[in-house]
Amino acid sequence: MTHSTYPIGTPGKQWNHEDKAHWLACQSIKRSYQQEVVTLIDELKSTLEVQQYGELNYAAGSYPLYALKTTDFDTNKATVLITGGVHGYETSGVHGALRFAKTLANKYAEHFNIVITPCISPWGYETINRWNPDAVDPNRSFYQGSTAQESAAVMNYVQSLNTDLIAHIDLHETTDSDNSEFRPALAAREGKVNTNWNIPDGFYLVADSNKPEPAFQKAIIEHVEKVTHIAPSDENQQLIGVPQTQFGVINYAGRDLGLCMGFSEAAYVTTTEVYPDSATANPEECILAQVAAISGALDYIINK
Q: Which of 47, 60, 225, 255 gives a 20 to 30 Å CA spacing to 233?
């Protein structure tokens, strides 16, 4: 299935500054980062350390960026990074990170230092968008010298912690809007013809092909399927156009693609993909699936 046109730009030509400005002018605020995210972060100040690690400054306004940490960091413990909201529109990634912070982070603090950045792209959260205001995808921008403020800020913050990560769990969603809006927009921006992928009906994982850790991914899938259904592969044995390596798992080259999961040296990495548009899913189930993915990952490392 393809979309040959998009209402912005000239087919076959990459967007110029005017096209990007046109795209930005079409975006609007649809929900509040302050009311829906920051208020929940503030509620956790009595149990977790809250740090502001940066601020995004755009024409539309400024957005403070927050991290949550378990207290009393211990250099003898391994450190786990949990990231949400790299794509701000992927709601359960943000609220799954916050729910884990509220309900389970301190339980796992016996074994790990835990760092949570629940909403890396707050403008994207407010506008329900995959990109930032510069029409840049933060989840293709995790590399040295990144021009995406969101990506650069969290990478600098993690580096400032001066700790080695054992695991990095990056929380995402795959939505029907990937085909209706975001992939067509990407093709238009790049001056290419869009080819949509089959949207998987259910939860799946993206592992890093450079360190896939299949047993780790399998343990997460088994934990999540107690909460929500796992996406079956399509007729080509693929998920989003990529061959399935095991049930519910595909591999991407995280660092080569500039993905959030690829920027650290953590031994265990994964990207979750929840499907909120499923006929059998609801927002709470999606949040619980993200929490289950985190706890399944940490349980595996503890018991290994």
A: 255
The class of domain 17-303 in CATH terms is alpha beta
Question: Where are the extended beta strands (E) located within the chain?
Answer: 49-58, 61-69, 78-84, 112-117, 165-173, 204-208, 238-239, 242-246, 249-252, 268-274
The answer to whether residues 228 and 285 touch, using CB atoms and an 8 Å cutoff, is yes
pLDDT at residue 2 in the model: 46
Half-sphere exposure of 77 (CA within 13 A, CB side): 17
Nearest one of 158, 178, 183 to 269, comparing CA atoms: 158
How confident is the model over 40-86, as pLDDT tens digits?
A: 999 999 999 999 999 999 988 999 999 999 998 998 899 999 999 99
- In this prediction the pTM is 0.97
3-state helix, strand, coil in the chain (%, to 5): 35, 20, 45
From CA 22, how far away is CA 51, in angstroms rounded? 35
Position 220, amino acid: I
